[in-house]
């Protein structure tokens, strides 16, 4: 599975869970200890808003603070749909994944940025599903490729606190359980995230 296909699939996974949010679930907890459902969607909407600008070559300073604060407004689902549609258009442009982008850590290949966004969409689709009681099963092909791409990088994440430390998994664990554990998530969490 290539980057753009994986990204599209991950975006669909997250989108499906956003559409499943009921009006009374925005304050529900998620496996991300500090984030409610609304906080989690806010994070992903903000990421999507940045993508077209960064793929166009903008620096962090040029984007500035325009996406600080509440980007969801009174209609969070609409905010997600609009931001994700624009981000997808940006990724679908010819050669979008071949350049470089400015991120917090410096300038990186756009392809690496795309994989980071794919990982974030996929794992947070699971987090969101846990928070709202939706289906937590992710596309198996997406899970496999994301795990393959990121498993070699796990050790380097521990010093910068991107994810919780990896969890042990039994030998018979499936790919999704292994991916979640690699990112510090317990697959058994799905029934305990809501409050």
In short:
The chain is mainly alpha-helical and 195 residues long. Helix content is 53%, strand content 4%. The protein has a two-stranded antiparallel ribbon with strand order 1-2.
Question: What can you tell me about this protein's structure?
Answer:
The chain has 195 residues and is mainly alpha-helical. It has eight helices and two strands; from the N terminus they run ααααββαααα. The protein has helices spanning 3-19, 37-55, 60-63, 76-92, 110-132, 140-150, 154-157, 175-182; strands spanning 100-103, 106-109. It has a two-stranded antiparallel sheet with strand order 1-2. Helix 1 packs antiparallel against helix 4 (76-92), helix 2 runs parallel beside helix 4 and helix 6 packs across helix 8 (175-182). Mean pLDDT is 91; it is low at 191-195.
SSE order in H/E notation?
Answer: HHHHEEHHHH
| C-alpha end-to-end distance | 36 Å
> Rg to the nearest angstrom?
16 Å
Largest sheet: 2 strands, antiparallel
Compute the number of helices: 8
Structural class: mainly alpha
Task: Give the amount of beta strand, in percent.
Answer: under 5%
* Global shape: globular
Tell me the strand order in the biggest sheet.
Answer: 1-2
Average pLDDT works out at 91
Question: In terms of per-residue confidence, which ranges show pLDDT below 50 for 5 or more consecutive residues?
Answer: 191-195
The percent range for helix content is 40-55%
Strand segment tally: 2
Topology:
Elements: H1 3-19, H2 37-55, H3 60-63, H4 76-92, E1 100-103, E2 106-109, H5 110-132, H6 140-150, H7 154-157, H8 175-182
Antiparallel strand pairs: 1-2
């Amino acid at each position: 599975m290539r980057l753009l296909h994986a990204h599209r699939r991950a975006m669909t996974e997250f989108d499906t869970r956003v559409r499943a949010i009921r009006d009374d679930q925005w304050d529900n907890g998620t496996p991300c200890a500090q984030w409610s459902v609304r906080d989690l969607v806010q994070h992903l909407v903000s990421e999507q808003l940045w993508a077209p600008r960064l793929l166009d070559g903008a620096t962090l300073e040029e984007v500035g603070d325009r996406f600080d604060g509440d980007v969801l407004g009174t209609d969070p689902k609409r905010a997600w749909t609009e931001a994700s549609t624009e981000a997808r258009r940006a990724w679908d442009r010819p050669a979008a994944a071949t350049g470089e982008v400015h991120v917090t850590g410096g300038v990186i290949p756009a392809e690496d940025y795309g994989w980071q966004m794919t990982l974030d969409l996929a794992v947070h689709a699971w987090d969101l599903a846990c928070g709202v009681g939706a289906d937590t099963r992710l596309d198996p092909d997406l899970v496999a490729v994301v795990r393959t791409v990121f498993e070699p990088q796990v050790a380097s994440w521990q010093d910068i606190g991107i994810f919780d430390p990896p969890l042990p998994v039994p030998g018979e664990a499936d790919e999704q359980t292994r991916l979640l554990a690699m990112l510090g998530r317990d697959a058994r969490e799905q029934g305990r995230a809501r409050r």
